[in-house]
């Protein structure tokens, strides 16, 4: 922790960055913090409660953040993949951000706690299991001690996706239309997503109105399919959409399924290498086409 | 939900004629479909064609919108690989629809409702076969009640409101 605070203080003092975006201890647990004064660097923390993907603040359309000046940001492995996504899509310039990577051993599923907990099978965020980027390579600095691998959750996301795949079509449809019918269209999933950075979201377009704004199941299905497809091959699996969903739609299952599809179809795994083009928007002459007559 | 919204009587299902929306590219499949017509090829008449510049122009939202508006199945068809008028539109579409096809099945949509094909300008006969096969597949899959049941049809709701208003007016008159 001291390593992180000392680094932040130094970067702010020598003027390398104007602001450090990290986590602090708040009334209801860890929360994002913007530190501009070196004296405040001791507020910074990193522990198993730091689930937030802070990269959502790097959206170039957030003028209030951009206007602060050069940004230093603390990133876990999944967050670093999101930075790579923004670099890949030319939303952020590499020189405009200083990335402080933290070695991560997973975060809590229920992160709003006054005290950090040791991770175990019951409290670990299932998305952390099998993480391939616990020590991000994209970063400028890497701090913290080496962490153990996240424990295996009681039921992994892959197992839950496989269980759904086993169901007959009608039951799958029943499951998902039930889940999507709960959606209240608050678009928290979109707002919190580090990669949902469109100037005008298709869901907000009214001429033509592609996605019905009414929160009935039909508009909800349309929205959720669109959200999922727009993140196919881009989603980093940080799980923020599901964590912020006020009605508990299991969006990580949707996202994991899409990761599975792009892996199987295009041999693509989302990484923190910004040079590797995303699979949608790219193609190979010999892509699979068994579904085309 | 009103009973008038979706007629689900067995008799209605038996007389079921699939409604299929085809999104086709201007350069190959549309011309191919035109050839099928001018050649007087016999084929099922359940398909409404929407012509677009390229398969690369076809957003998966078009398909969702078709289902919302009552389609029981869709066809997406364009130029064969290496034939795209814009060089690579069909390659991009191929990737997009590969993901869409797999994902809709994960959500529980019957893959028989989705037909993808490459039909060139000279393949009128292939277009006929694609159409006939799509129609028989969708016929086997049945009407897409599941999608329509997601939301009340606006006209039905309007009817209900009209009925309520009429009843209220009658009440006032009495």
Account of the protein in words:
The complex is a heterodimer of chains A (293) and B (174). Chain A is α/β, with parallel strands linked by helices and 293 residues long. Chain A folds into two domains: 2-143, no CATH class; 157-266, no CATH class. Chain A has helices at 2-13, 63-66, 77-88, 157-166, 169-181, 188-192, 217-230, 240-244, 251-266; strands spanning 19-26, 29-35, 44-45, 71-75, 97-102, 141-143. In chain A, helix 4 (157-166) packs across helix 9 (251-266). Chain A is globular and about 60 Å long. Chain B has 174 residues and is of the alpha/beta class. Chain B has a single domain, classed as Rossmann fold (3-Layer(aba) Sandwich), CATH 3.40.50. Chain B contains seven helices and four strands. Chain B has a four-stranded parallel beta sheet with strand order 2-1-3-4, with helices on both faces. Chain A binds chain B through residues 164-165, 167, 169-177, 181, 202, 210-212, 214, 216-219, 221-222, 225-226, 228-229, 232-233, 257-258, 261-262, 264-266, 279-285, 287-289, 291-293, and chain B through 60-61, 64-65, 68, 81-82, 88, 91-92, 94-111, 115-118, 130, 133, 146-147, 150-152.
Keywords, separated by commas or semicolons:
heterodimer; A: 293 residues; alpha/beta; 6 strands; 31% helix; B: 174 residues; Rossmann fold; 4-stranded parallel sheet; 4 strands
Helix content of chain A: 25-40%
Task: Using the alpha-carbon principal axes, give the shape of chain A.
Answer: globular
Quaternary structure type: heterodimer
In total, the number of domains of chain A comes to: 2
Helix-and-strand structural type of chain A: alpha/beta
- Major sheet details of chain A: 6 strands, mixed
**Tally of individual helices of chain B:** 7
- Low-pLDDT residue spans of chain A: none
As for the number of domains of chain B, it is 1
